[in-house]
Design brief:
There is one protein chain. With 178 residues, this protein is α/β, with parallel strands linked by helices. The chain has a single domain, classed as Trna Endonuclease, Chain: A, domain 1, CATH 3.40.1350.10. Helices cover 43% and strands 25% of the residues. The strands form two sheets. A six-stranded mixed beta sheet has the order 6-5-3-2-1-8. Strands 4-7 form a two-stranded antiparallel sheet. A hairpin with a 7-residue loop joins β5 and β6.
Length: 178
């Protein structure tokens, strides 16, 4: 991602924090921005969940992904047993698990890992350990649109947080479940 995008995200992180405020948490804001980026890429039947379950469902043709999104400043992420269970449950409806990670650091981009639910380790895992499952073409496409999504929506998010993004999701035809 561009340095300017990282700076905007850091501003949002500082404003909304990890635990969140009445207008939203940084993690949920990032999840909604990611859903908008998937929409920009032409994915359809997008469902973004602010509560339990997988974070985002997306489809493109016959491909259906259940997305677990993670944002970190470190080199690892935490995958909980609840995350794995939610991914397995979406598998019953034909959705493949997709772990999508953004490390908030200069020159980092989204990393996407496509693997079976029973292959996903639980607990703290190094982002680098997802390398063998990475989906490079999706990473490239996602990275190409994400900077623009952040730039386009930054002012609205800065002012109104998740409420702004919920309106944008509706306008894009994305189902948001709270």
């Amino acid at each position: 991602m561009k340095i300017s995008t990282l700076e905007l995200l850091k501003k949002l992180q500082k404003r909304y924090g990890v635990r969140g405020k009445p207008s939203g948490s940084f993690g949920k804001i990032m999840q909604k921005l990611l859903a908008l980026a998937f929409s920009e890429l032409g994915y359809r039947n997008i469902v973004e969940r602010g509560t339990q379950g997988v974070d985002i469902d997306i489809t493109s043709g016959q491909t259906k992904f259940a997305v677990e999104a993670k944002v970190t400043e470190g080199t690892s992420i935490v995958i909980s047993p609840d995350n794995i269970q939610a991914l397995k449950e979406r598998g019953y409806d034909g959705y493949e698990p997709l772990i999508v990670v953004l490390q908030l650091a200069p020159l980092e981009n989204w990393k996407c890992a496509r693997l079976a639910a029973d292959e996903i380790p639980t607990g703290e895992i190094l982002i680098e350990s997802l390398r063998r499952w990475r989906v490079k073409d999706l990473e490239t496409k996602l990275s190409a649109v994400f900077d623009g999504v952040v730039e386009k929506h930054f002012s609205g998010v800065e002012q109104d947080g998740e409420q702004y993004l919920k309106k944008q999701l509706r306008q894009a035809g994305i189902t948001s479940k709270e």
